[in-house]
Amino acid sequence: MKNIRNFCIIAHIDHGKSTLADRLLAATQTVTAREEKAQLLDNMDLERERGITIKSHAIQMEYEYKGEKYILNLIDTPGHVDFSYEVSRSIAACEGALLIVDAAQSIQAQTISNLYLALENDLEIIPVLNKVDLPSANPEEVSDDIIDLLGCDLEDIIHASGKTGFGVDKILEAIVEKVPAPKGDPNEPLQALIFDSHYNPFRGIEVIFRVINGEITKGQRIKFMATGKEYFADEVGTLKLNQVPKNKISSGDVGYLVSGIKEAKEVKVGDTITDAKNPTTNMITGFENVKPMVFAGIYPVDTEDFEDLRTSMEKLQLNDASLVFAAESSAALGFGFRCGFLGMLHLEIIQERLEREFDMTVITTVPNVSYLAYTKKEPETAFIVNNPSDLPEPSKLDRVEEPYIKATIITKADFVGQVMSLCIEKRGQITNQTYLTPERVELNFDMPLAEIVFDFYDRLKTVSKGYASFDYHPIGMRTSKLVRLDVLLNGQSVDALSALIHEDNAYTIGKKMCEKLKELIPRQQFDIPIQAAVGAKIISRETIKALRKDVTAKCYGGDISRKRKLLEKQKQGKKRMRQVGNVEIPQSAFMAVLKLN
Ligand code: GTP
């Protein structure tokens, strides 16, 4: 155990975490040149395409230092706020962290939020100034920023480049020298922390864990403490580029486990694995059931595909336990599902996977957060509202609570004014403002989560000309004056277009919504009035003028194949449209409320 080091890499997005991880694997010959592919750890197609790490992974390296052999377990962490609970559990499985800071970008919002997580878990921090090869690198100034943040010495900061490989040997040495060896007792009852799991279509769920105390052996009867479920450890082993089966994994080490578990939801990240016969009395602290933060309706474009969609969702859920869904029906869209996601990125991933892996064409409705409603009749009983149409009548409603977040934004001093106005417009309350350097400011806001779901990121990017980084964490529910904005097309209320918004913004949003929908809904053979309403009150109105559009008119009779092609093209264009009453609504219209500015 004294020769094991468990560490993770924490960084702001794009500061070079994956590139550097690949370098460490190459330097320790964990991968041969032939196996080396760019961004090795990001092995889901989607991850590679988007250049982001969605799921965390672990990999074991062997490293010889001063004549002794060491096992280095690198625990990779996802880089997006939607997956922050997984980040926190990965961090809890380590004794040390490489804190990567881009030598041109310096410290950003995620650098700080991840660092706090690491410090809460008492990790030894090794600061790495990365991308020193960049012509725009500013090592002196960025080193000063790191020293201010960590209170470390200049000599502690390792200069490195994932691109050239510079500094990689120093990083490996520092991991051995500075990261403490794991503590723990192999003779105690088994206590292992689950920090990740994967779905393998042939073997079921593979659980990734770190043993704190005791050991886990092949064939052992084990128990997952949070779910209470028991299994046999059919196979245990360590994670190299491939899995390496072993007879046992002892305290301090990281490994995988296969037990024929079929569904991802049986394995909860943060749960403790123990021995079924001789269980530990202590569950590892910090376990939480991850709750979805954003909800949206997912409907098949073709109503007949509802059962296929259900099957696809069930299959997706087998390997992604954080996806939740329940059947719902919409007067406008028919049968579909109300789905819960960890955040907007997660929503996009699910939508894309449904299309790519299951060949489903779906309509996604306006995302919303989860509200708590209290009625006048029972003002003490919270009633969960995951769909705006479920909000009780205004006359029966006592109050509504919505989730709030604490936001951290780091930006240049020049943009503080604009960033603050944006946050205030988004109902944020400033709680703190710190000048990290004369040019860089950290701002803290309490803000409704719903405002982040709407167009916040894009607006922040625009007002700061790209010089703002942003991170957040939830801080609980607060009462807000919320009303439901309904949209009527051709006099018919379209439930899938309803959204809960703050009373004070109702008029402006209603007006913009009508204007936007006028742009997005194609003209049809009759006038279509668009109205926005709060309760019985119409607050805005636009009209889409009738147009008779005969696409085949151009083909003056003759060429039938050309005519067919045009009709085919028109059919393709219809793919993501839904007929509601006698109005055809494109997918973009369901997202209109997110793009009002
Ligand atoms: P996420 O996984 O999305 O959090 O990103 P990451 O932090 O893993 O960053 P990644 O390794 O994907 O690198 C981001 C970009 O920076 C890529 O375009 C890399 O090619 C580039 N990059 C990484 N390291 C270096 C470096 O040392 N020097 C230079 N010049 N570019 C680098």
From TrEMBL:
It is a peripheral membrane protein. GO terms for molecular function: GTP binding; GTPase activity; ribosome binding; translation elongation factor activity. It catalyses: GTP + H2O = GDP + phosphate + H(+). This is Elongation factor 4. The keyword Magnesium does not apply. One of its GO terms (biological process) is positive regulation of translation. Keywords: Cell membrane, Elongation factor, GTP-binding, Hydrolase, Membrane, Nucleotide-binding, Protein biosynthesis. Required for accurate and efficient protein synthesis under certain stress conditions. May act as a fidelity factor of the translation reaction, by catalyzing a one-codon backward translocation of tRNAs on improperly translocated ribosomes. Back-translocation proceeds from a post-translocation (POST) complex to a pre-translocation (PRE) complex, thus giving elongation factor G a second chance to translocate the tRNAs correctly. Binds to ribosomes in a GTP-dependent manner. Its main location: membrane. It is an enzyme of class 3 (hydrolase). HAMAP family: LepA. It comes from Flavobacterium sediminis. NCBIfam families: lepA (TIGR01393), small_GTP (TIGR00231).
